[in-house]
Each structure stands twice: as structure tokens, then as C-alpha cells.
Amino acid sequence: MPDLPLAGIRVLDLGQVYAGPTCARVLCDLGAEVIRVEGINRMDTIRNLFLADNDGSDDYWNRGSYYVFRNAGKQSVVLEFTDSRGVELFSRLVPQVDIVVENFTPRVMKNLGLDYESLRRLRPDVIVISMSGYGQNGPWRDYAAYGTGLEAVSGTCSLTGYRDGPPTRTGISFTDPMSGLMGAGAVLLALQYRRRTGKGQFIDLSQHEAAIPLIGHALMDFVMNNREQPRRGNRDLVAAPQGCYRCRGEDNWLVISVADDNQWRRLAEAVGHPEWAEDERFADILSRHGHHDQLDALIEAWTREQDHIEAMHLLQRAGITAAAVLNGKEVLLDPHLRERGAFDLVDVPGAGKRPVPRVLGARFSRFEAKARGPAPKLGEHNREVLQGLLDLSNEEVTRLEEEGVIGMEPVLMYPLPIARQMVVQPLFSFKQMGALLDIEPDYKEQLGLEG
Amino acid sequence: MPDSALAGIRVIELAQGVAGPYCGKLLADAGAEVIKVEPPEAGDRSRNLGPFPDDIPDREKSGLYLHLNTNKKSVSLDAGTASGRTILKRLLAKADILIESFPPGHMPGLGLGYDDLKEELSDLIYCSITPFGQTGPYRDYKANSIALMALCGLMYVTGDPDREPLATGGYPADYFAALNAWVAILAALAFREREGGGQYIDVSMLESLGCADEYNTGMYSFMGAIRRRYYSRHLFSYPMDIYACRDGQVVVVPGANGFPTSMALLVEQPELETHMLFTNFWMRAIQSQEFDALIQPWLDAHDAEDILTRAQELRLPFGPVLGPKTLLANAHLAERGFFQEIAHPEAGKLTHCGLPFLMSETPLETGPSPTLGQHNEEVLSEAMGYGREELIILRERGII
User: Fold this and answer.
1) Is A339 part of the contact surface with chain B (CB cutoff 8 Å)?
2) Distance CA A379, CA A37 (A)
3) Predicted pLDDT of residue B1
4) pLDDT per residue over B237-293, tens digit each?
5) Given CB atoms, is B217 within the 8 Å cutoff of chain A?
6) In 3D, which of A178, A117, A187 has the Cα closest to residue A147?
7) Whether A255 and B147 lie within 8 Å, measured CB to CB
8) Is cis: bond before B21, omega within 30 of 0?
């Protein structure tokens, strides 16, 4: 297999939490050498989340699934940015890299003396991408933002919600993966231009703006008709019936969407109720919209007796759009995703191999873009990078370690024994309150993982 | 005049709907010449989807189409006829990239599959976008955005715990697929410059959405826990959700450093700083109703804008809940110049959604969407060398 498209490209990833690290991980999967830089006093908080086996002992900060998902295949360098020597080490790395990725609010890089103009003096053709919440200018430029909130600011929540309810968030930090992909594409555009002209550039990506095009049709409706679209729950403007129906078992559901009269007839036959197709309340698309509640009741009377996954296959074989609502476990075990290789097995220090979702939903005929290795332990590559790229001697690196300019142990907000307790999630309480369906101690066996 | 990143790159877009066209738009706005090949009678199916001005259907005035096809050229061509296919092949011979979104097997059926073309057109980057990809047991299954939200696991964790799972509004599966296809095409272009030659790209919309899996599979594969929807909340950092306030809603996100002090100051009860639900974050998540009772009265007494300003002064990453109207009137976006007015020959001047990022050397630039077949003559005669009489014959036969 030949090289990957970004072989030979080096990236400094200052990204925190989700969007920036995702951008850099896409570049990494495409072959770039990505050096992730963290502050000793500012360990990325995602290292605390969803630890392997919910175990807060030892170097737990290297075992979080949230961290591993975003950082597989990268290298890790830990510098102290509050010490001018730490900032200087970073500055000395810049001439050795092609790309700098960061997602702080604009004042952070400026205060460190690491804004684009400064970085460009160190490396004239550097490509810098800033992925702050609201971009580099405008009255909200210094507003702090999380992807969890930006979904609502970008307008998507205005279209999401039960028909009788308020705007609703998606159950993930929706704009983060979107901005991460957007940022990776923007960097690829800048690289394309640099190959042609030798020039670098600055990319100002506002995570807020990157997600707004998702509601382009609703914006157009307002521009054209001065009207805001209602929240439709799981229904559709055109297809009917469309809904999410309860199936057999605990919290199992099936989505069904019927596009036209033919599909309606086929659905009625497939579920053993050909008389539904003859019922004039449901005969055409308009009458089905008019009697949607009654339709839902009929359909759910059938789905309640069905296994959600088997019912999906039954209806799909009849040519109807049907999809089981899969939970995290079912996604991992789904035969289609397994055959497609949607997860890479990645070594997690002290926890064995674990499946990590791909960050690109594309398969290439001439190379494979996948997680290229484990997520690095905190500061794992301090020595390799500083000695290899900056020609520091062994003694110099040791002195920097002793003086706390670089390190492999985080300085945490709380004393270590307390921090260890705080990162352990109260899973049984979560289950009691209904936020978890189940906790399965034999999950590794079920997933076919060793140990 | 600023240069563009994709100057000299030509794209044939044989895709309809949302995913393929948004991918094509991202390439077009970066300077690629995107030739959209549409069926001669109906055009792209999004031309028949609204919104339309005053709800009067008009294939030149679909808001969805106008949003997704800026800056492209339109050639109307019936790829179902042999003559149409001949023209299409000649177009592809001069192109760098093809984007198509037919069901698996359709293009090979027309003799236009990647394997049919790869020897003659060895530099072509051929990108297929389908719901489930070209392989695997579901490859021929039908899907739309809600079905893919269901199968990727995101729907199960969205909505209230005692109600049915809830789909995210709009067409998220399509947009995630568009971004994946766009990144993949740019990666294949980079690869072509290194190694020479094109390649085939198989984009699965389901797996594209799967890239947005924050921790649903991770909770199981690392801890054995199966996450459910719980008001779409993150439990590891409670609160992080949309709350009601005096004049509407506001996103309450205290972030990593909001507790205990800043949140207590925000709600003007400094004594809460020592309250157990302010000092212990797991307790706060588990006893969320008790916690909400502590802050809701203050939220109910204040307007969203006031809450947002005060919160941001305390460095709390709160946000407003915006929709089309409030986004279009937003002062921050206005100063950033996000929305753009574009004049269209049939639809007139309309404010369009802006560009998703700014580039200092190669600014993205957008222009009007094409009318159906607007560039037949330009593309076929100027670029492809068809003569005037040949074009008349093709038009008479309904091929263009």
C-alpha cells in the first residue's frame, strides 16, 4: 500500500476537548504526523471522561474513551505555557511544522505571543487554523463556547423537538464533530494552495458559523416568506406516515418512513394488514397526513409485538424505509458496520484493545484512512520530539523536566486522591435515574475483546 | 485579485438532493468549476422541494436548491440515453472529480461505474455517496436522514427518557455525508499530486454520522454501560442543557470552571457556593431536579440576553437559542459579514447562508445558483467543442 496523502506533513495540535482534536485526528488518519501539545497545568479535561472500566487508579488520564477517540495515532508533548521557557520551546517547534491547529478563544494565542502573525515570522508558509466558538472578530469573539451549547446558537435546535415542546438538543456535542471535519477540509484546501504557490495562510473558522448551513432551507423560508418552520418531532413535511414506534422489549424502537402510495400498500401487506391500504382515511398522501395520529396507533399496535431489528429487515425487504433505533451496544454489534470496518481496534494502555470509531465515513480504493495507533500517554513523546526536532541534549531535557517546564504528570485542580474519586462515574445511580439502560460487566466478552 | 484554492479543478456533479450538492458547493465556493448535470425535465429533485416564495412551486425558486447549488454551472442532460452518456463521458474526460449519489449498481448499469472508466480516465477521482456504502448487508436498504439518525445511535440518546427517541431536525445525515465526501475528495486530490492517478471513494452516510459518536459506543466499549436519552443531557457536566427563562430559552453551560463560585454569583446567591449541589458535580447530575430548583427562579426572572451577557462576563460559556429570524438579525454575524445577498436571474435578490470559514489568501467566494440547463451552450460548445447544429439536434431529441 502506498503512502497516505499527508505523509510528510507535520501538525502541532493545540486543540482542546473535541472540535480541534477532531480536525487534527482527521489529518492524522490521512497520514500527517500530529504532535499534540498540552499544558502541564491545563491537561485536556476530556482525559477525565469515560475511563476504561471506570477505573481512576494509576495514570487514569491515559485511559479515557473520550480522549482515545479524538487522539488515536497522535504524539503527545506536555509543556508549561505559564513559563516563558515553555512558550519558547513551542516557538522553536513552529519552524518544523506545516500546520498549527487551535480552538481557544482568540485572546489566548495572542496573549501567549503565538497569534498567526507571530507564527508566520517563525515559519513563513505555516498554515494556522483557529477554530474558536465565534471566530476572530465581531462582538462575541471572546465569548466562551462549548459544542453542546453551539448547536442551539446555530439554529439546529430550533428545528429539533417534540411537536408540543421547546427547542431540544441532540444528545451529543453536535457542532464539534461538524467543525472538526470542516476544519480538516479547510486545511486540505490551504495545503492544495500551498503546493501550487508555496504560500501558507490563516483560517478563521467559527464553530458557530460552520454549523449554520445545516438549517439553510429554514433560513431561506424566513428570507422568502417571513416564516419560521415548526418543530415536527419525528414527522416529515412530505412522507407519511413517518414516526418512531415502540417495539417489543425494554426501550426498543423502530423508525418507519413511507414516501408514497406504493410504499404504503407494501407496508400494509408486509405487516399482514392489507386492508389498511383500502382504508380511505389512509389512501393518499394527504389523507395519511390528515389521519397521522390514527395511523401511528395502528402501526404501533403492530410494532409493539415485533423485535425492532427483525422488523427493520422485514420492512426493508419490502422496499420501505425502516430503521431500528440502535443503542451504543447495538451499534458496536451491528453486522453492517462490522463488515464495513467502522471501528478500529486500538490499544489502550493497561486496558487492552478497544474499538474506536472511524473519524471519516469514506473508504478509499488506494489507501486506508484509519486510526494509526494508540492515543499517546501524557507527555509520552516529550523526549522524542524535543531531542529529535530541536536537537536538545539528554541533559537539557532532563533539566527541563526537573524544572517543571515539561512533564508527564499533570498538575490537577484537586489533590490526586480526590481527583481519582471524581473521575469515577456513579453508573449505578445513573441507571437508577433512567439515564442508562443497563450496565453489563461481561461487555468485553460480548464484544469479543480479550480479557 | 485573490487566488482560489481549487483554481483549475473541474468537478462533474451527478448528485441530487442535499449531500452531494452541498459537497459540490463547498468545492465550487473554493474555486473549482462545478458542472452540475441535471435531468432535462425535472432537474435536481431538490428543485421540487420547498421552501418557495409564497409557497408557489417553481423549479427555479426552491430555497433548498438555491442554498445548495451556489456558484455552479448547470447542464441538463439525460444520462439514460446513449447520446447523453456519450456527452457525459466526454465531460468526465475533461474533469478531475465526479460526485454521484445513485443507489449502488445504478452507475455500473449505465456503463459509467468506476471500473468502466478507470482505465481510460485514470486520473479521475470518483466519489459515490450512498446511505450505507457500496458493500455490506444493508447496501441496498432505503434510508433518509431520520432512519440514519436511528441506526447511528444518536437518536436513542436524544429526547426525554419517558418518551420516544427524537430525530435531529433538518438533514443532518446529508450534511455530515457532504463534509465527509468533501474531505475525502480533497484528500484524494492531495494523494493524486503525490502518487499520481485518481481513485474511487465510497462514502457511507451512516458511517459519516457515526463519526459524530461522542461517547455512546465508548460508554459500552470502555465501561459496559448503555447510555439512554435523558433530556439530551451530558451527565458528566451537569447542567448542560436548554432552560426556560423569562422571555424564552437560554443554553445553560457552566463549563469546566463554572462551579461553585461563578454560578453562585450569576444567580445572585453567593451563599450557594458552599451548597452540596454546587460543590459536588456527580450529586448535581443525580439530583438534577433539586439543582434546577435552585437556579430556575433566577432564570425565570431574567431575559435571555441579560443572562447571556452576565454569564459571559463570568466566563461561563452560555449561549442563546437562535432560529432563522434571530440568526438573520444577529449583530455578531452581521459584523462578521456572514450572510450574503445573492442575485439570481429568476428568484431575484435573496439573503443566503454564508461561507463556513474564512481563508486569508484564498477567500471562498460564492455566486448565484444556476437555472436548469443555463450553461448547456457554454459547457458543451465552448469547453467540449460541440457545434451549433449538434446542439440543436441534442435539444430536439430531449437529450439536453
Assistant:
1) yes
2) 8
3) 56
4) 899 999 999 999 999 999 888 999 999 999 999 999 999 999 998 999 999 999 999
5) yes
6) A178
7) yes
8) no
Q: Note the pLDDT tens digit of each residue in B5-38.
A: 999 999 999 999 999 999 999 999 999 999 999 9
Whole-angstrom distance, CA of residue A386 vs CA of residue A397: 8
**Residues of B with CB below 8 A from A210's CB?**
356-357
Q: Known catalytic residues of B?
A: 174
State the architecture of A242-332 in CATH terms. 2-Layer Sandwich (3.30)
> What confidence category does residue A148 fall into, taking pLDDT thresholds of 50, 70 and 90?
confident
- Helix, strand or coil for residue A161? coil
CA angle B184, B188, B194 (to 5 degrees): 145
Which candidate, B372, B359, B385, places its Cα nearest to that of B31? B359
Contact B315, B262 (CB under 8 A): yes
CA distance A177 to A185: 12
Which residues from chain B sit within 8 angstroms of residue A11, using beta carbons? Answer: none
Q: Do B187 and A443 touch (CB under 8 A)?
A: no
Minimum CA–CA partner of A196 in chain B: B5
Give residue B397's pLDDT: 83
Q: Name residue B49's amino acid.
A: L
> Using the beta-carbon criterion (under 8 Å), do A159 and B169 form an inter-chain contact?
yes
Q: Do domains A10-213+342-432 and A242-332 have the same CATH topology?
A: no
Chain B residues near residue A181 by CB distance under 8 angstroms: 176, 179-180, 183, 211
**β-pairing verdict for A33-39 and A75-79:** parallel
C-alpha cell at A96: 518544523
Per-residue model confidence as pLDDT tens digits over B133-142: 999 999 999 9
Tell which phi-psi region holds residue B68, choosing left (phi > 0), alpha (psi between -120 and 50) or beta: alpha
Q: Which of A337, A344, A413 best tests the B interface by mutation, with the highest count of B CBs <10 A? A: A337
Residue type, B341: E
**A 214-253 residues inside an 8 A Cβ radius of B:** 214-225, 228-229, 231-234, 236-239, 242-246, 251, 253
Q: CA-CA distances (angstroms) from residue A297 to A243, A300, B76?
A: 11, 5, 44
Fold classification of A10-213+342-432 (topology level): Rossmann fold (3.40.50)
Which residue, B88, B51, B317, is CA-closest to A219? B51
- Segments making up each domain of chain A, as ranges: 10-213+342-432, 242-332
Residue A2 has pLDDT above 70, yes or no: no
> What is the C-alpha separation between B67 and B368, in angstroms, rounded?
9
Distance CA B100, CA A302 (A): 37
DSSP secondary structure, B60-115, as one string: T--HHHHHH-TT-EEEE--TTSHHHHHHHHHHHHT-SEEEE-PPTTHHHHTT-SHH
User: What pTM was computed for the model?
Assistant: 0.97
Nearest CA in chain A to B161: A434
- Domains along the sequence of chain B with CATH: 10-211+335-396 (3.40.50.10540), 235-322 (3.30.1540.10)
Q: For residue A107, which phi and psi values (nearest 5 degrees)?
A: -70, -20
Indicate which of A156, A192, A232, A440 best probes the interface with B, i.e. most B CBs within 10 Å of its own CB: A192
Any CB–CB contact under 8 A between A146 and chain B?
yes
Q: Please tell me whether residue B374 adopts helix, strand or coil conformation.
A: coil
- Contacting residues of A for B194, CB less than 8 Å apart: 3, 5, 7
What are the chain A neighbours of B238 within 8 Å (beta carbons)? none
